[in-house]
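Entry:
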Amino acid sequence: MRNAIEKFFKLQELNTNIHTEVIAGITTFMAMAYIIFVNPSMISQTGMDFQSAMMATCISAAIATIMMGLYANYPIALAPGMGENAFFTYYVCLTLGISWQVALGAVFIEGILFIILTLTNLRQAIIEAIPACIRYGTACGIGLLIAFIGLIDAGLIVSHPATLVTLGDVTSPPTILAVLGLIITGILLIKNIRGAILWGILVTAAVGIPFGIVKYQGFMSLPPSMMPTFLQMDIGGALNWGLLSVIFIFLFMDIFDTVGTLAGVGELGGFMKQGKLPRAGKAMLSDAVGTCVGAACGTPTVTSYIESAAGISSGGRSGLASVITGLAFLAALFFSPLVKMIGGGYQVVGGALLRPITAPALIIVGSMMLHSITKIDWKDYSDSIPAFLVIIVMPLTFSIATGIAVGFISYSALKLFTGQGKKVSWLVYLLSALFIFRFLYLKSL
C-alpha cells in the first residue's frame, strides 16, 4: 500500500515522503479551517440555512481538493472563496435583491463556462502569458496579503479613521497569544523541527486553553443535514440577460484569483518550469469542477486557496497533501467543535474577530513567499514598476485579481510606450484591455 501511494504521487521524484505530505496537508487545513464557519456565517445572511451551508462548504472543499490531489498532483487546497462569497452575499443577493437560489444558479453557470475555457486551454495560455516580473510580483504580493491577514487576525493591525490602519492593542490577551505563537513557530523553524508550522499552531492552541482565550467546545458532533441547500440552485432563473454581468464578474473573479494563486504558490513550491506550470490545465479543471460542485451543494464559487502556501512551506510537494486536506474537511463534519476551537478561534475584541491560533502561521508563511523578490530585475523599470505595483496593490486592496490587473495594465503600457511593444504577447494586451473594461464596468455598477 505504501509503495503504491509513493508511486502514484511520485513522491521520490518530488523529493518528499508520506510523513511530510501528511504534515503539509494537515497544516494547510489548519490554516484555512476558518472558512468552515466564516463562509456559512456570511452567506446565511441571504436566507440560507447556516448548518446546511457549513455542510456545503466542507463537502465542496473536500471534493475539489481531493480532485486537485488525485488528478493534478499538486498540494493546493480549494474552498469557497473569500471575496466571491462577499460579492454573492452583499451585492448579488442583498443589494440586487436576487434570491440565493438564483445566485447559486449563476455560480453554477459560471463554473460550466470555467470548465469550457479550461478544456480549450485558454486558462493555461493565460498562466503561460504572465510575464516573469508579474509572476514573481504575484508570489510576493500574495505573501504580503497572507501576512497582512495574519497581522489582522492577530490583532496587531486594526482599522483607523485617519490612517486607515494602525497598531492594535498589544496588551490584549489574544494578541499576546498570537505574538507568543509567532515566536514559538519561529523558534521551531530555526531549529529545523519537522512540521514546525503545524506544531506551532497546536502549541499555540494548547497555551491558549488554560487562559480562556481558546475555549474548549467539545470534541465530536453529528453532521447536520445539507438538504436545505442541496440542488436548490435555480439555473433557469439565472439564464436571464439581466444576470449576464453577474455571471461575468463571478467568472472574472474566479479565473484571476485562481491564476494568481497557482502562479504564486507555484513559485513558492518550485513547481514552475521555464515560466510554465506543468499540468496547469488539470489544476484549473479541478478548480472549475469545484465551483460547479459547490453551487450544487449550496455555496458560492470554490477556488484555489493562498493558504495552501502554509502546507507547501511545510514541505508539501505532491497531491497527497491535498488528499489529506480534503479528508480533513470531511472529518471536520464530525469534529466541528474541535475544528472551531483551533481553526475558528474567534475572540471578540472591540468588535473585531481575531484568530490568534492560525495568525502566526500566516505571518510566517507570508514572509517565506517573499524570496521571489530577488528574481525581479529592479534595474529594468519596465519590469520592476509593474512588479512593485502587483506587490503593493494586492495587500492594500485585499484582492489577488486586482493586483494582477494593475500589473498587466502597467506592464503593457510601459512596454508599449517605450518602444518595447513587440516583446509583449498579444494575449497580455488583450487581458490588459479586459482588465481596464472590468474597472470601468465595476465603477458603473
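The chain is about 65% helix and 5% strand.
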